[in-house]
Specification:
Two copies of one chain form a homodimer. By secondary structure, chain A is mainly α. Chain A has ten helices and no strands. Chain B binds a DNA duplex through helix 3.
DNA sequence: GTCCTTGTTGTAAGCTCTTACAATAAGGAA
DNA sequence: TTCCTTATTGTAAGAGCTTACAACAAGGAC
């Protein structure tokens, strides 16, 4: 009876793919409505699956949230670290630093929708010990790499600086602008990010190539 | 029968006082557990009243949240603005700027518990149009006052600067550090706040009195 | 003391969300 | 084709939260 397989009622996916899809759907929900939109049923609908499937892939909401966190931060920050640690990368340390900075203030990354996700995650990190641990480990390692590169640049220029402090303050400045932008889209644009962050770095390291 | 009034089962409070108490209790809840702890029943318990009283004072949760926002930000920011606009205040513009800055980075204000409240509110502002409008109005007026004072200082020193940008970036830097501190208490201490913010301001305005 | 206003309590209806689980069917293997 | 694994669905129990409301009582007015 060939005619019986007109159209399957649902599509079977490889577990890894489905899991990744669900996490992405969860991120879209977070982005749209913050933690208030982080509901199992809504996420299932966003992913186009039934509610029942959620509990098949995640034992509870917290597990999903942690996965979301890792998908959002891990992927992103680890990519930056990889760039930072890429000794084979072309160009001088200063040029590499500029490239990293450009990646950090990439408009695609700093768009308000992304910040909605971050605000939700930060709000959870402060309250959720599991997430907090994960965050600290990852973030410290990121800052360390950034500080190292800054230190290398400073050394090449015979400047005495505190790379750890510069890295931390640079990231704080960018995060703060990111926040202001999310709360009031007219408050900050990409040129502001660029100007503020380069100005800050050049204060400590001297002139950097500032393209565009 | 005098003996009947042994001990009243509850105390009647003036509406304004009770309302303020409830808002303060709500802030304590936010501080303790973020939005997840922002539950009517919990807030009532924190304030030592029954759940039923909540709906007597606030038609719904959103109204309470808005009040919390105003109590947290309004009170605080408006106080700063008042200081800023206080022409009669003693001292030179530079001295007044230093006083304001010290108020902004007051350890009592930057403590992590406060940030938990702010993270929750920010997360809501991004998602809640009412709150967003309130925030923008208030925050813009705050930055405007701060920029004005910065402009006055710069003018007195014959420096050409962009006060609006400096004010915004200064606040961004502080907010960013505030955030880092909340996510990792060991990452930033009060001396870091002081050092970073004074360094930033002095870059644009020249030396400022930096006590202690 | 008595009355009256209204701040306060206690309770429950109604809704939403999470979690669990049994039934179903897609899709590969043989 | 037939069988088998398991991804997927649908549903419902159960918990928690918001909102509404009728009854109660504190405390001032007189």
């Amino acid at each position: 009876m060939q005619s019986r397989r007109k159209s399957p009622r649902f599509r079977r996916e490889a577990p890894e793919k489905r899991r990744a899809d669900l996490v992405q759907a969860a991120i879209r929900c977070l982005s749209a409505g913050g933690m208030a939109a982080f509901k199992m049923e809504r996420i299932a609908a966003e992913a186009g699956v039934s509610l029942g499937l959620m509990s098949h892939y995640f034992t509870d909401k917290n597990e999903l949230l942690t996965e979301v966190y890792q998908a959002a931060l891990y992927a992103d920050v680890n990519r930056k670290i990889a760039d930072l640690d890429d000794k084979a990368a072309a160009g001088s340390p200063a040029e590499r630093l500029c490239r990293i900075l450009d990646a950090i203030i990439d408009p695609e990354y700093l768009k308000p929708a992304n910040l909605t996700v971050w605000l939700a995650l930060w709000g959870e990190i402060v309250v959720n010990p599991d997430l907090r641990r994960a965050h600290r480990t990852l973030y410290r390692s990121y800052l360390k790499s950034l500080a190292k590169l800054i230190g290398t640049v400073a050394e090449g220029r015979r400047r005495k600086v505190n790379p750890v402090e510069i890295a931390r303050n640079l990231q704080a400045l960018i995060d703060g602008l990111f926040l202001e932008r999310a709360l009031d889209r007219q408050a900050v644009d990409h040129a502001d990010f660029r100007h503020a962050s380069y100005e800050f770095l050049e204060l400590h390291l001297g002139p950097l190539a500032s393209p565009a």
